[in-house]
Write a structure and sequence with these properties.
Length: 83
């Protein structure tokens, strides 16, 4: 095994083992803030923003693909006809 692939394997193992610690830190951050605190409101909005980005990206790509598919279907019947 080369040194680079060994480093990648070690990095992946370290990242997988630290998942529980990251989840605990995230829940602790949210539970220490009070409801009326402006920092709590900002934290809630940032979580919603981060959670919505994958959906926005997926919908953008899906919309583009649907547009390309519909545009391609409109052009196909004209190609097969001879004048």
């Amino acid at each position: 095994m080369s040194q680079r692939s060994g480093t990648v394997v070690i990095a992946i193992l370290l990242l997988m083992s630290a998942g529980d610690l990251w989840a605990q830190g995230c829940s602790m951050c949210g539970s220490t803030l009070e409801n009326g605190d402006p920092l709590a409101t900002s934290l809630s909005r940032s979580v919603v923003l981060m959670a919505s980005m994958p959906f926005a990206l997926f919908l953008t790509v899906a919309g583009w693909l649907a547009w390309k598919l519909r545009r391609g279907r409109r052009a196909d019947p004209l190609e097969g006809e001879e004048a």
